[in-house]
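Retro notes
What went well: the complex prediction finally ran end to end.
Inputs used:
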Amino acid sequence: MAEKLSYRDVFFNPFSKNNPVIVQILGICSVLAVTTKLEPAIVMGLSVIAVLAFSNVIISLIRNTIPTSIRIIVQLVVVAGLVVIVSELLKAYAYDVSVQLSVFIGLIITNCILMGRLEAFAMANRPWPSFLDGVGNGIGYALILMTVAFFRELLGSGTLLGFRVVPQSFYDAGYVNNGMMILPPMALIVVACIIWVQRSIHKELQEK
Amino acid sequence: MKPLRNFLDRIKPTFQPGGRLSAFGSVYEGMESFLYNPRTTSAPACAVHVHDCMDSKRAMIIVVLALMPCFFFGMYNTGYQHWLACGATTFPFFDLMIYGLLAILPRVAVTYIVGLGIEFAVAQMRHEEIQEGFLVTGILIPMICPVETPLWMLAVATAFSVIFVKEVFGGTGYNIFNVALVARAFLFFAYPAHMSGDAVFVASDPIFGFGPEAADGFTCATPLGQIAASIGVPGAVTGINGLAISRWDAFIGLIPGSFGETSLACVIIGAIILLLTGIGSWRIMLSVVAGTLLMGWIANEFAVPTYPASYIKPLDQFLYGGLAFAAVFMATDPVTASRTNTGKFIYGFLIGVVAVLIRTYNNGYPEGAMLAVLLMNALASLIDWVVVRSNISRRKARLKSSCAAKP
């Protein structure tokens, strides 16, 4: 890294100023796929936090022994191992959610955030800051995931975490759930709205 | 008209920067140039361009005028279908018109209030003049939706499409997609139960206590909906009273459907107005017709019972549904269509082809005109790019060959 960041910045920057989804634009595909309901989104966020934190630490520990020419393969192996562990844990303890998430837990391997953080940070930093970076980016990703899922579940199904939130009297008065919210295009538009709000707060992030 | 002009001039300073109501400057500007020609076109001293009064505001107003036959017929037809549903045998003209007016007026009001509200707010935020683009959009949206669409849905869809299709791209003239069609597409995908099926196209209740009471639970799908839902070779399409709909009725437009799109006759009148004034592109209209007829003919030649809509005769494609309306009022939208002349032919032709393809080979979507126009909106600039590039390379080749011919 060019400039030296404090641990604090390493941990907190990914929340907003350097958010993996809405600033680095990584991991968009899973944001579209797993955010129709809040519950799978939370589980997905936690899984990514865990995988990202541990893979960052492991890669950081062995970063000086990895030959540069095969580093991507080594990174993939580490990530794949962790993802399999997470996937098995979910199947054992949260079977319903893991069925809902179906292939997307497995696809964490291909989530761009993973490779991005490993390449950009863990390969060049010591284990502790790498751990912070992994957790920070994971939380940044999970925050966006949960925000998108919140709006999509609320407006698309009228529920939150499976509990009915929109009162029956609304439906009696003619309110109808927005079926478009369940469809992937709306996830993109919700992400776009988040980016919109965030860019108008942090003017320095606005692209020229 | 003089007192109005004087009044506008008198209150003008209030809205100028520094005036008491300067926050509403763009509202004033919008109203003034709506009523009078803008005075701020290029000054005579530096007039290198010839201006006539045919600015985009006049163009929009002519489009609205061209829509009027469809609009008035929609009012009549809304009343007619309701009376028919109630089992009436006489159809008093003025009662039908009043009923239709009561049905459509709140919808037009809602779209204009929501859409113009957003436009005014954005114009004020950006310190720009108010653009007149919503004039046409605001009347199109209720015309292409079923008459039973709840008002709040119209408001949500209008807000969505004005913000996400127009304003974020930079306002009037910068939108990639047709704003009115996106509003309809939003409704179609967000609230499918209210935008298709057999219960939404005919007004079922008296409005403000006006009109006869209908029997409970009557349903009637649009002709295309009936055809798509039929099994095997479709029989004759029927009206709400169970009698077959003749071709003449379909041409005049006395069929269930979205408010303004049912009448081919009125669409043709509108098309003539647009063509005579030079506002609609004849290239696009003609090529949509050509594309529809060709694809309709192919589909009809290879008609199979799996796709009942393939039994529609090529010319009948225009009688039912919104394809004719879309060809005249949607496809010719100068902002979202292709700009080059060759591009217009390709653009229109593909709209016709895709619309019939969707109608015929996807029984879930009885009407494909909306999706066809939106798809081609997305491809319009690509078509232009191809046309321009091929023109450049053709001329380059000609230059090369003429250079080679010379010693």
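What we learned: The two ends of chain A are 24 Å apart (CA to CA).
What to try next: split runs per interface for comparison.
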